[in-house]
Amino acid sequence: MAAKTLQFAATHSLSFTFFPRWLRNAEKGTPIEAVRLHSDSMVVCEQMLVQGQVQFLLCHRHPDVPPLLAPDQFVSRKIGEDVLVPLVGASAHFGSSPASLPYLAYTEESGLGRIVAHRLQGKEDCLHLKPLFSSHLAAVLMSMALESKGVAWLSRSLTEQEVVDGRLVRAFDESWDIPLDIHLTRPLAPISPFAEAFWAGVGASGSPG
């Protein structure tokens, strides 16, 4: 690993939209010579961080859904906010009851899947949603929603343009939204001096990961 190369693992949905903008802003404080981004599911990204293959993990977090990473070995900082919104294709017609909607679900490998599954527990209407299609890729679920195949909880950062264009619309009101934090996580063990300097520039306060 080159001394001045920053190695990130990021979930797919953040790799496409959030990461490029965030990195551009981060560069204003510390010029970055080289970046290597590994984009994958949450499970794979966590494994890469644990195994030391990357220095940083970029992912969505929810305060009620603790990460699987050991809190005594990793630390994280909140670097942004997002929200999961239940969306369907503009031409979809499934009826007015949530139970009548085919459900486009995340698989277990997905960090967003963990969050959605946790938040939908206890919502009686939602327990009747039957997964029509499952994927760990938010972009794939978005494509299915655009084809009016069902409802998917999709991040605002990923679907902003599709919503503005009117191609995706709300399936339910705001009470079904799931607010998210975006976190950057690193090991507590030392990383390269350049990566340490980058981390120091990200923010002054961290929260246990």
Number of strands: 10
CATH homologous superfamily name of the largest domain?
A: Periplasmic binding protein-like II
Q: N-to-C SSE series?
A: EHHEHEEEHEHEHEEHE
Helical segment tally?
A: 7
Layout of secondary structure:
Layout: E1 5-11, H1 12-16, H2 18-26, E2 34-40, H3 42-50, E3 56-61, E4 74-89, E5 103-106, H4 111-120, E6 131-135, H5 138-146, E7 152-155, H6 156-164, E8 168-170, E9 178-187, H7 193-202, E10 207-208
Parallel strand pairs: 1-2, 1-3, 5-6
Antiparallel strand pairs: 3-9, 4-7, 4-8, 4-9, 4-10
Description:
Strand 5 (103-106), helix 4 (111-120) and strand 6 (131-135) form a beta-alpha-beta unit. The protein is built from seven helices and ten strands. With 209 residues, the chain is of the alpha/beta class. The strands form two sheets. Strands 1, 2, 3, 4, 7, 8, 9 and 10 form an eight-stranded mixed β-sheet that branches. Strands 5-6 form a two-stranded parallel ribbon. The chain folds into two domains: 5-80 and 181-201, D-Maltodextrin-Binding Protein, domain 2 (3-Layer(aba) Sandwich); 82-179, D-Maltodextrin-Binding Protein, domain 2 (3-Layer(aba) Sandwich). The two termini are 24 Å apart. The model is unreliable at 204-209 (pLDDT under 50). The longest helix is centred in the middle third of the chain and has 10 residues, at 111-120.
